[in-house]
Amino acid sequence: MSAITAAQNLELGVPQDIKDAAMAYLVVVLENRSDDRVDEDVQELAELATELGALDLYVLPTGSGAALIDAREKAFWTAKANGANDITDMVVPRGSIPEYLSAVQAIGADTGSLVVGCGHAGDGNVHLSVFQPDVETRKTVVGRILRAGADLGGAVSGEHGIGTEKKAYLAQIEDPAKLDLMRRIKASFDPSGILNPGVIFD
Questions:
Q1: What is d(CA 36, CA 180) in angstroms, rounded to the nearest whole number?
Q2: First-residue to last-residue Cα distance in the chain
Q3: For position 199, what pLDDT does the model report?
Q4: Which alpha helices (H) appear in 112-175, and where do they start and end?
Q5: Is the CB of residue 145 less than 8 Å from the CB of residue 89?
Q6: At what angle do helices 97-111 and 135-151 cross, to 10 degrees?
Q7: 51-93 pLDDT, tens per residue?
Q8: Were both Cys, which of 14, 62, 108, 140 would link to 113 (CB 3.0–4.6 Å)?
Q9: Using 50, 70 and 90 to split pLDDT, how confident is the model at 114?
Q10: Maximum CA pair distance of the chain?
Q11: How far is residue 74's CA from residue 26's CA, in Å, rounded to a whole number?
């Protein structure tokens, strides 16, 4: 969050002691037909978040909220500008996100890597930036964080697909029966093998 807000020169009014203590931020966008209804929803959300252990809550003006969402959309560029060596994504069941992020942090600590992320809590997409200059160690880290998500019932595809970067991980992690089904589906629609030849299935 510090890197995202600094890159866009955003000041959200969060005190330094909260910044120092917070391990994650949850940004919630509320909309309704009238300001009164939005205020009611904010009050209810504040009570729920407090009961669930939130350190503090902040209501941002519309302009600041929109600017924060825009800055979050540029998080990958921010990570790259700050030296991230790899960027990947994973989708996990929403209720498993805290457990997954704890596993990711343990993998980072275990391998001397920094792994930070952001995502869409509503659909379980977690985007991760990996800071690890050693190529072989980095491959191990990415493989382990994808495996950790799969073990929680997630999928290595996230929202950005497989492409060439995740091809090897897909083969290692995914159920062979599912991969065979994917191959057969592709063959039925593409019997001549002219659609993205060799990208996922050789």
A1: 54
A2: 40
A3: 83
A4: 135-151, 167-173
A5: no
A6: 160
A7: 999 999 989 887 888 888 888 888 888 899 999 999 999 999 9
A8: 108
A9: very high
A10: 61
A11: 17
- Alpha helices per DSSP H over the chain: 2-7, 16-21, 35-51, 62-73, 75-81, 97-111, 135-151, 167-173, 176-189
Nearest one of 99, 101, 135, 130 to 115, comparing CA atoms: 130
Exposure string for 120-140, b = 16+ CB within 10 A, e = fewer: eeeebbbbbbbbbeeeeebeb
Indicate the SS3 state at residue 133.
coil
135-138, long-range: CB within 8 Å, 24+ apart, which pairs? 137/111, 137/112, 137/113, 138/85, 138/86, 138/113
Q: Describe the strand order of the beta sheet including 125-131 as a list of residue ranges.
A: 86-91, 125-131, 114-120
> Is 158 in contact with 193 (CB distance < 8 Å)?
no
Which residues 6+ apart lie within 8 Å of 26 measured at CB? 49, 54, 121
Residue with tokens 């992320």, as numbered in its chain: 117
Residues comprising the chain, all counted: 202
- Rounded to whole angstroms, the Cα distance separating 184 from 74 reads 37
Distance CA 68, CA 71 (A): 5
User: 100: exposed, middle or buried (C-beta count within 10 Å: 0-12, 13-18, 19+)?
Assistant: buried
Cβ atoms of 88 and 146 closer than 8 Å: yes
pTM value surpassing 0.85:
no
CB neighbours of 147 closer than 8 A, spacing ≥ 6? Answer: 172, 173
